[in-house]
């Protein structure tokens, strides 16, 4: 495997990590450009909600797998991520807020939560991410979470664009993204500091960069799958969601 190479303009590990996001984060994907500009039709929005659910539902599972490998100090710092997504029994968390979005776009939340209709490529990408965090060295597992460095920006644009262009968008349906504006910076502050402290050699810096590149690929692959199935007609694979299914 080739390692990312520092250039004279990119001297620190944090600079290198931020440069990866500037080049590779999925806010650059044309599907997001369509979505935020109001150019997606209702079924394309529904397909995005259904497939993004697979990723949302996997986040607390990958975090639980990660915590099973850690000592008490790391678990104490990491467990709020699970609490953010799962929430309490009564109020729920990010996962329940995502299902509010599903309901707002006309989908049956139970259908979305079942995972039926998720594109095969989406599921492969999500499963690969869970395995990566479960199996790779802790440095790479933590570094793969650092796409959160770039998440608040895309959430802000998403909230603004959707409220402007889509009738379903309101405070309730956009609550997942609104909440992440405060949750993601908290999470990434700890994760970035931990990576910068523990990547104490050139080899480990390269490992951290490779992990972040892997994660950006996971996110990009999900949007490529959506684009191929629902933007370019006639390429929905067997078993994946088709318009009209799982509706309220």
From TrEMBL:
Q: Which reaction does it catalyse?
A: 6-(2-amino-2-carboxyethyl)-7,8-dioxo-1,2,3,4,7,8-hexahydroquinoline-2,4-dicarboxylate + 3 O2 = pyrroloquinoline quinone + 2 H2O2 + 2 H2O + H(+)
Q: Hey, which family's this protein in?
A: Belongs to the PqqC family.
Pfam families, sorted: TENA_THI-4 (PF03070)
Q: Which GO terms describe its biological process?
A: pyrroloquinoline quinone biosynthetic process
UniProt keywords, alphabetically: Oxidoreductase, PQQ biosynthesis
Signal sequence annotation = none
Statement: the UniProt record of this protein carries the keyword Oxidoreductase: yes
- Domain Thiaminase-2/PQQC, chain residue ranges per copy: 15-224
Task performed by this protein? Ring cyclization and eight-electron oxidation of 3a-(2-amino-2-carboxyethyl)-4,5-dioxo-4,5,6,7,8,9-hexahydroquinoline-7,9-dicarboxylic-acid to PQQ.
Functional pathway: Cofactor biosynthesis; pyrroloquinoline quinone biosynthesis
State what protein this is by name.
Pyrroloquinoline-quinone synthase
């Amino acid at each position: 495997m080739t390692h990312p190479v520092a250039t004279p303009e990119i001297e620190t590990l944090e600079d290198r990590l931020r440069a990866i996001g500037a080049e590779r984060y999925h806010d650059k994907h044309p599907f997001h450009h369509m979505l935020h500009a109001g150019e997606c039709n209702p079924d394309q929005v529904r397909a995005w909600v259904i497939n993004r659910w697979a990723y949302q539902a996997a986040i607390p599972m990958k975090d639980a797998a990660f915590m099973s490998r850690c000592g008490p100090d790391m678990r104490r710092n990491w467990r709020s991520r699970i609490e953010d997504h799962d929430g309490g029994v009564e109020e729920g968390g990010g996962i329940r807020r995502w299902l509010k979005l599903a309901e707002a776009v006309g989908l049956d939340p139970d259908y979305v939560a079942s995972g039926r209709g998720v594109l095969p490529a989406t599921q492969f990408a999500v499963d690969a991410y869970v395995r990566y965090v479960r199996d790779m060295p802790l440095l790479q597992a933590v570094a793969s979470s650092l796409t959160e460095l770039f998440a608040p920006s895309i959430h802000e644009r998403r909230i603004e664009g959707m409220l402007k262009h889509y009738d379903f968008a309101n405070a309730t349906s956009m609550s997942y993204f609104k909440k992440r504006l405060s949750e993601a910076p908290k999470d990434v502050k700890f994760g970035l500091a931990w990576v910068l402290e523990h990547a104490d050699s050139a080899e480990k810096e390269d490992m951290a960069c490779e992990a972040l590149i892997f994660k950006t690929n996971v996110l990009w692959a999900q949007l490529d799958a959506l684009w191929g199935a629902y933007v370019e007609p006639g390429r929905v694979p067997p078993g994946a969601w088709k318009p009209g299914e799982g509706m309220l």
